[in-house]
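User: Fold this one for me? It's DUF599 domain-containing protein.
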Amino acid sequence: MRSGCLEGKAVEFLAPHFLDVVCLLISITMFTLYNVFIWRKLKSDPIYTIQGASNLARRAWVVTVMEEKNDILAVQTLRNSTMAATFLASTAILLSVGVLSLTGQLDTIGTTWHSLNIFGSTEQSTLALKILVLLVNLFIAFFSFSSSIRMYNHVGFMINVPCMDGNYSSSMTFVAMQLNRAASHFHFGMHAFYFLVPLVFWFFGPLLLVFSTLAMICVVFCLDRTSKMYCDYMTPFSMKSCNLK
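Assistant: Here's what I get for DUF599 domain-containing protein.
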């Protein structure tokens, strides 16, 4: 009896937001399928995207820095990467505070946002749901960039530590893995930022969320795809990275 009552309340709660929730799930699914597609392509072609090519470049960079003992170059490069991640993490927090400030103005801004909302819900609870999803996305971006900063700091120490057992290949491989892991967190945070665009359009209607997601996927693919000229340029880096295998 109690379970039936809970199900009824759940249905009653979701009924006004049905189209918005469905469009959100469609948008998340499309973005997820795009990332799965890229992941599968990288399995067969490591330089299919700029991220894959950069992974090879970072591995070759670690080999060069640790072989030539170029500590100053390593510290300066890692400092630049840490500053970029710090700036974006701070931006994510500032945007979160800005979004939270909107919660006290739902009555006044709801009318403006819903002027183009033909099919979706116009209730305040729907606006609260949209703000909640937007906050979750921003917090994901913040923690991704924060994790990237943490990993870059670890690499800054590891890349300057001499190998104790004489197995330089293992040491370089471990440092390169941690550096690429930091870059992966940074990449994930950037994708969370990209997904902010469809979520902002969601405030003006659920259908705009789906269409803007399609447009953003096309834009992200153009940004991710490695050009033929860059593929040729990466060949020496690929050969240099083989030292870690």
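One thing worth pointing out: Residues 124-158 form the longest helix (35 residues).
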